[in-house]
From TrEMBL, chains A, B:
GO terms for molecular function: DNA binding. The keyword Coiled coil does not apply. This is DNA-binding transcriptional MerR regulator. Residues 1-10 have a biased composition (Polar residues).
DNA sequence: TATGGCCTTGGAGTGCACTCCAAGCAAGCG
DNA sequence: CGCTTGCTTGGAGTGCACTCCAAGGCCATA
């Protein structure tokens, strides 16, 4: 990848209101510690992501230090979101590989995204189910005196 | 895609048996392998839960084998749900300890449940955010031929 | 010139949540 | 009786996702 960006702004769809700390295209060259500050990841983790093939080739300064671009930050945003879904890092690496391999992996990538989407829907449903259980327990506790609170432990 | 609209049939307050495999009170004595079949956990994990204090004292047969009750199954259901929220096992152990300690931990338990509830809401929000990103990417892929699909990698 | 800060590397270590192992006991069956 | 099946135990091992370490390079300020 690393093809030159042509879109003048990424705030294209859905009015993405995203990242106040970003510099405009052409000046988007962030040190690792800046990226640490932006993403909440550690420098260790950023270097590790690169080692395992989860980052798409980060630029270097003339002294060999990493210089991250806005594109890299975008990618890390996506990775962060996928991480929240519980997707294993290995699967994200697989996706990164597909992107690196070029257009002919289009179908695979599409499938991977759709499978992930289904997983996310399932997880949301599970969490809503859990929420219902919690709410039921909480209302027992809220209504009850001590003795009844103990009873609350008996119901699912 | 496994549509799981929240079924209203789960509003079982101290009543309807939600688990077809359960036996009535008084005959609720399950071997570890039955519990494995019901919960999807392994026997190893069940024993490990007990060792770390996550199970509230499981009965034994005259030969020393574990005999789980409906209450134990209820507890495992709760544990399973909490596990789905990403709650660390150590926190669940803490909750189990509070229950064992009796009524005077009422307040602590209530707080723990409410904190968990807030976490779950946060997680659901995060997942919905992720879902929006995925949907956006997927629609790029769905609309696009190969060349455009490549472009889709450029947007957050 | 030296001090401190930020960065680099490969490899080793950590914490969590299991997961498995070896050795052994008890019950049921032919 | 031996065989199989199912269960028991403490402790060791596994896989994942980091997390840290030691040793050193670069460079701006004092």
């Amino acid at each position: 990848m690393t093809v030159m960006e042509t879109t003048p702004t990424r705030t294209d769809l859905c009015g993405a209101p995203p990242h106040p700390h970003r510099r405009p295209e052409g000046e988007d060259s962030y040190t690792i510690s800046e990226v640490v500050a932006f993403t909440g990841l550690t420098a260790h983790t950023l270097r590790w992501y690169e080692r395992i093939g989860l980052m798409p080739h980060v630029d270097r300064s003339h002294t060999g230090q990493r210089r991250y671009s806005n594109r890299d930050l975008d990618w890390l945003d996506l990775v962060g979101k996928l991480r929240l879904t519980g997707m294993p890092v290995a699967d994200m690496v697989r996706y990164a590989e597909l992107v690196r391999e070029g257009d002919h992996t289009f179908g695979d990538r599409f499938e991977l995204l759709e499978a992930t989407r289904r997983d996310v829907l399932t997880r949301i449903a599970e969490l809503q189910d859990t929420l219902a259980v919690l709410d039921r327990k909480i209302s027992f506790y809220a209504d009850a005196d001590g003795a009844r609170a103990y009873e609350a432990e008996k119901v699912r």
